[in-house]
Please model this.
Amino acid sequence: MNRTHVVSELKGIVGESYVSDDPVDLLGYTRDFGGEPAHWAEIVVGPSSTEEISEVMKLANRERVRVTVRGGGSSTSGGCLATLGGIILETLRMNKITEIDEDCMTVSVEAGVTFGKLESELAKKGWMIGVVPEGGLPGTVAANISIPGMGFFSSAYGCQGDQVVGLKVVLPSGEVLHTGSQGYPNAKKQFWRYVFGPDLSGLFIGSEGTLGIIAEATLKIYRRPAVMGFEKLSFDDLDNAARASHEITQKKLAIYNLITHESFYRAVDPYAKALPKATIDVFIAGTNSEVEERRKSVHEIAEKHRGILLGGEDSRKYWENHFIQAGATYKNGVGPMVTYMIPYSRFQEFTDVMWKVMQRHKIKKCWIGAFDMGNCLEHYNAAFYHEYDQEEYKKVRDAAGEMMETALKMGGTPYRIGLQWAPYVARVLKDTEFFKTTKSLKRLFDPNNILNNGVLGI
Model:
């Protein structure tokens, strides 16, 4: 790459103030929120519109320059790191909420709109989105779709991909693709996803930026509930906890269930003696009467599965502080978050196996839990280290590698891949038609292989 030429061209596209190849500026883009090692880009560029992204990609494609897309950098899997140098394309200047459509019950946003801003603006009009990720205030909508993200309310609404009505995507060639109803020239807005045969939106959901750059997105919105109720349940058996969460979700009693293993409480207080094997935080939404009726049903389910009621105050505080939970968590250090999807019935099995891995590697700060996704569990395994402690760093990295290998062998499927899971996934899937098809799509959309290299294992 002729860096001087490319920098000059980029400045002509986005303006001189929004391009840099200064190492001081580039340092801030070498890491994300997780434990992946630093990777250096050569240039960072901040476009402010879909048109500017298009021109940047035309330049990159012409000059064969690698491009890595980055939102708020709150990922923990390394998906926004420039593994092969090139350009970091940061979307944060694209921060407009372009429409809140109360008729179609959708919100349209640019790629760099953060969930903090989106939640705040929707709340003013009495609306909310279906999935509020735990990534905190800096998480951006387009990046979350590309994972696809999960979080608060996923028990009721699924993943962020399920919320997508339509997208505007810049392809590696610089061409702009509209998916959903807006792909039809006479449709003036996004109101329906499944039009004209194949679900083109679905190609980009979960593709982690490998096939195109999500520049704008339209999501479903929902009326904010009149009342939120909270319950915390305690269990001395992991299977009972999973069965209780499953039944609560089956009966549509809650919009969010979080199962927390005893390891979390031991990390908080290493000297604690009598601890439950697991707790469940339950969020209930509706009118006053609906919340009370559902609360009674939750109590009955807890009793049926030998749970103990702990009241709702702790869960309420958890929700009220949901956008700062990530910051509080990472006071324990940084590190990989090994997350994957499993059936409810295998919660105890996976938890027991992963807890043994962590204990065998003698990890100082670690815990396990699961988010209820409505038809399965997102099983997460968190391990932390402080970067000055190289011995602990090696132990955590080794444990994470073993957990990823083990999860795949046991039949778990990664929640997000990024750089973290890529080599493990590539080994497991390499001979499957699934992986071959994914690689074929990559060649079709990105024949010069310039976009988001290293993620997905392709």
Summary: The mean pLDDT is 94. The chain has three domains: 3-92, 97-223, 227-415.
